[in-house]
Amino acid sequence: MISLAGRDILHAWGKFVFTGVGLGLLIGVTLIMAGVYRGMVDDAKVLLDNSGADLWVVQKDTLGPYAESSSVYDDLWRSIRGIPGVANAANVTYLTMQVRQGERDVRAMVTGIGADGPGTPGWPPYLVDGRQITRGHYEAVADAATGFKLGDRLKIRRNIYTVVGLTRRMVSSNGDPMVFIPLKDAQEAQFLKDNDAIRQQRRRTSENPVFNNPGTPGVLDAVIASQTSSPYVNAVLVQVERAHAPEDVAQAIRRWQRLTVYTRAQMEAILVGKLIATSAKQIGMFLVILAVVSAAIVAFIIYTLTIGKIREIAVLKLIGTRNRTIAAMILKQAIALGTIGFVVGKISATFGAPYFPKHVLLVPKDSVAGFAAVVAICILSSIVAIHAALKVDPAEAIGG
Amino acid sequence: MTQKGILIKGLKKRYGSGDTAVDALKTVDMSVGPGEVVGLIGPSGSGKSTLLKCLGAVIEPTAGQMALGDELIYDDAWKVRDIRALRRDRIGFVFQAPYLIPFLDVTDNVALPSMLAGRSNSDARSRAMELLRALDVHHRAKAMPAQLSGGEQQRVAIARGLVNQPPVILADEPTAPLDSQRALAVIRILNDMAQKFETAIIVVTHDEKIIPTFKRIYHIRDGVTYEEKGEGRGFD
Questions:
Q1: How many whole angstroms separate alpha carbon A91 and alpha carbon A70?
Q2: Helices (H), ranges, chain A
């Protein structure tokens, strides 16, 4: 038996192809939306992977340093390093801001890293060009996604930094590229007040008789000095010795330092479950809407194509075609339309993804699930058309 | 071998029930032998289409008898279980418009009923080619219906009606869209095919041009048939 669906598609291939292309662009947008979600999850994991940390020590009862603000003293790392099972510990600061370069600025996560050198938690694990930071001030390593080049001069707050190295796929959980600078500079950038505010604070301190007591002349200078320097970092990143379980070490830090400590799994749960949860729901809503729109388009097209063949269907029934043959013809056409749409969508998503400002991660699992969803939608969408076709009376071919 | 032809006795068809009941067919008696082409003529609303639908097993009569060859297929109820197979294998249809399937070429349009009957594609196509040759449209075998003239389309439709060698063919105004010359050509083809394949052909028509060609004519008026001897001109 010949394939009626195949012959009809070949006969009206233009209609199928153009409809399929239209549907495909819609499917492409759907795949991109799924890719944006995957990209957000991937960015979160990349952030954790690239930090090189097994544990994140943050301010007590906060979800820092990524999901909430967190401040801990910058000398805390010394006492943490002394806890059994800790291989390494390093301070880190994170500050998302606009980094200026000439006339343009780039949204980036400025990361302050300690002076211990590559391999220390928080440092970029690899470079694609240039070198790591070697000076204590005014050097930067930037992610290639910032668009900065070696030798570029960046302005962060009031200071100018020279890009000495470039890295890749070092992004925040929001997908903002990272710029690494020395910790001291980052602390200053994070906590530095403007000149007016500093002047106001000095005035208020000097007017306080407790600090400005003529009998104890050194107190005022000491207080002012403490106010203008920052002893805080956002977190201490900890590497655990191989022989120790991260959770055991985390428990020890919690007990002795009275701080909140997150393991890798806990931090991932915070980033994926809390930080990008709203975005994920938003994307989920869009996916549902796009699926409904796709279903409506397929249903409308297949229904229109079927209604346009009512007389032929009546003739087919009159000459003895089984209902299931006619239903199969419509079903196959719907699936063919979906398949054309999916192929177009997959190709357009694959080629379009790199041009999106956010990281779009197209994973084969989503493509397989997407194709299954498209086929399911096409099957459901063809039900109306099949129902209409099966209701056709063969007597319509005779007329009268 | 099964005797061919169609025999109808006291066929009735009532639509609706009670006060709103309409007797579309009151008493229909017809017999068409193998190789015979008869005309069925009647004004609009006389019951022609209803009769054609009953004969074509598209709708069920209310009462009466119908026999195809020596097999009683209706006796106040259908006597065959698979009505779809009855239509497919034992009744051929030719319509006012050819109603060819636009996405199948000429060969497959003709071969389709045969394929639906379970024959292999190659058998069905070779049978279709025989008929196309007999109807002199074999040179258009690979053409699509839209590429054919009206006369060619009607000949292809006749071939489709004949492909399963049904004992009866029902032709519903097959010459309506054609000019005199082509209309007479179609009737000539139907006569030739009726004789060649021993098929009984009932031609429903209003076409004054072709009425004189029938040897026998059934008139239908208010759901009742009357037989009349026709002129039978032109095909002896």
A1: 12
A2: 4-11, 13-51, 76-81, 183-191, 195-206, 218-228, 246-257, 264-270, 277-307, 310-318, 323-352, 364-390
Q: Where are the domains of chain A?
A: 4-44+277-397, 60-192+230-258
Q: How many Å apart are CA B125 and CA B104, to the nearest integer?
A: 12
pTM of the entire structure? 0.76
Q: Which residues of B touch A400 (CB under 8 A)?
A: 48-50, 52-53, 172
Q: Give A321 to chain B, closest Cα distance, Å.
A: 6
Per-domain boundaries in chain B: 6-229
In which residue are the tokens 């994170």 written? A94
Q: pLDDT tens for chain B, 236 residues: list them.
A: 345 789 999 999 999 888 889 999 999 999 999 999 999 999 888 888 899 999 999 899 999 999 998 889 999 999 998 998 898 888 998 888 888 999 999 999 999 999 998 899 999 999 999 999 988 899 999 999 999 988 899 889 989 998 998 999 999 888 887 788 878 888 888 898 898 888 999 999 888 888 999 999 999 998 899 988 877 775 55
Instruction: Report the gap between the CA of B165 and the closest CA in chain A (Å).
Output: 13
Say whether the peptide bond before residue B174 is cis (omega within 30 degrees of 0): no
Chain A interface residues (partner B, CB cutoff 8 A): 1-2, 4, 7-8, 10-12, 311-312, 315-322, 325, 393-395, 397-400
The residue written with tokens 């008493």 in the block is: B27
Backbone angles phi, psi at A230, to 5 degrees: -110, 125
**pLDDT tens for residues B98-108?**
889 999 999 99
Q: Does domain B6-229 have CATH number 3.40.50.2300?
A: no
Q: Min CA distance, A10 vs chain B (Å)?
A: 8
Do B102 and A11 count as a contact with CB atoms less than 8 A apart?
Answer: yes
